[in-house]
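User: Need the bound-state model for iron/sulfur cluster:
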Amino acid sequence: MTIGIPRALLYYYYFPLWRSLFTNLGHQVVVSAPTNGEMLEEGIKQTVSEICVPIKVYNSHVIELLKKDVDFIFVPRFVRNNGREWYCPKFLGLPELVKYSIPEAKEKMISFDIHPKIDDTFDAKDFLPLCDYLNVSKRDLKNALKKANEDFLKFRAFMEKGYDFERALSALDGIDNPPPFKKGALNILLIGYVYNIYDPLVSMNIIQKLRDMNVNVYTFDMLNEKFIRNPKEKGKKIYWVFTRKIYNTVRRMLLDDEIDGIIHLTAFVCGPDSVVGKLFELDCDKYQKPFMTIRVDEHTGHGHLQTRIEAFVDMLKYKTKNAM
Amino acid sequence: MKVAFPYMGCVTAYDWFLEHLGHKVVMPPEPTQRTIDLGVKYAPEFFCYPFKIMLGTYIEVAEKGAELIISSGGCGPCRAGLYGEVHQRVLDHLGFNTEVVIFDSLFQDPKDFFRKVLSVKNNTSLMSVLKYFSIGFKMVEDMDAIQRKINILRAYEINRGDFNEAFSKIKKMYRKCESKKDVLKTTVEANAMLDKIPIRKVREEERIRVGIVGEIYVIMERCANNSIEEKLNNLGVEVETVQDISSWVKHNLIPRRFNKEKSWQVIEKAKREYTPLNVGGHDLENIGWMIDFAERGFDGIVHCMPFGCLPELVTRSIIPQISKDKNIPILSLSFDEQISSANVQTRLEAFIDLAKNKKKKPGLFEEFEFKEAAIV
Ligand code: SF4
Ligand code: SF4
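Assistant: Bound-state model below.
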């Protein structure tokens, strides 16, 4: 059977795991094409207008997969980790956001709740409903998942060496093309969710653009989980998984003198970012780290992004030159 | 200690309760344009609208010297769980010496809850606290019932303003109560007052009834929702709103196992038919109430949410299906500091026309019109 995986949202984090899992169960994985304007048009048409662009992108990919006539479409519902930390409410409502916006998808959806204990190694019980969907035994699932977890950790190891998503994925497949990190170049932390920084349309290839300006780019998923856990301190913590990751990445990088500046790439009307975005601003101010927010939606133009990052990079270059 | 609280629904009873615990109460003024402006100015730009209005109120009471602000928070997965933290940060930043205490759900962390109760109870004996609470709660319950009654009768008001005037008087009457007996007596008087107000008589089949569901702050606070209940009443429409303080308290404070509240029953309906999981606000409950309104033969439903509200956007995605399945017109509106009263009015008028036409000619209403109306 063919299982469609939308190239959106957590695809950019978990794809290696999912691909390995389904392939090892004997199925063929089909991924939707990289986001393009036409696809997004259709997603926008079918999705509530007020929602953040990543969800519209997701629906675009579901529509695209329907056109490819796959047997199933994998739409997991990530709920919370370790019984404590939640995913963004829109992840919790993702299956509904898909099936009530695109009714034809309903029949094809493989959808169940995922409550992992830790988020880089999954337990067979997290994926148990797959046994019914795909008619496999629990034992087969366990074996396939074991392999998938291994592949995922291999992938993560590449990420932690500074690879970006695409490079880590091809490295996993045997084509190792290490990312360019140059001595003496500017170091910029590009903070934001994987589905924003890696989506070619949403991010307008910002990583490549920065590299073309001779900048070393760092992202939160290059850090091992153990560096970005919540510190033990009093008070309420950020309780969304990926928001916590980006938040603690920034807190860490603020103390790192090697980092010359921080760019926050975020979507308009992103709920969790409306909280941490403000905290980033305050913290960067406190540590005098140059900081810029780029807020994107379906109307953001290329020119706008290009101008802003150029100005930011120029400013940093000027600053470092003067400091020398 | 000078204590204050957010302005939400009918605040007379909290004022009464805290004063009887021996606190000096800084009464939050009803939110005005200034409140909204203050909130918008100092809140993170993309934070939720309710957060902003509450912040405006907090600044206003802090200006009047409030030292403690008591509020409720919720505990994720939505942003409300972080309201208190961020409110506190902004107040600190502005240089106020005001502490925000959040009563999170009693069952989440009972120890913490009781610690907070102790800090608020101010050396009043526990027996007295319970007594005051029970009187205060009775007051809230009765006032909520009065408000519900007004939302129906005001649709047929002959002299515009009669009901609002009566309600202002009624609030003052409750504020003077000392015992449960006083409350009961006031309730009888209040009802008599309402019954004396002249209203138009209508035939049963001419009644148009609309239910209001949505994000709790926006549907309870008329400053946030552009007085939507009154606007609908003025169009000759009866209104029933699903949230008020007393139902919220009963829904949340009675242990689940003994809780017979209808809000829990409608949640079950929503789970059976539309979605298995609450994504963070009152989304499941709202879906449940929509089913309930449809089953009770209401003529329409208005869904109100703050602009960009995460859980209610999920609800909004489901609305077209509910509307179709249950054959009931549903209008979904988003509110923020930029919405204009005239805009709300036009949308409501168009929607009520649709509901009236449908009533005259039962059967499936045109879906096209609904889509226009639902997706703002
Ligand atoms: S975290 Fe933000 S961008 Fe991501 S789905 Fe939630 S609201 Fe949208
Ligand atoms: S439910 Fe809506 S208004 Fe409340 S915290 Fe969540 S997003 Fe904000």
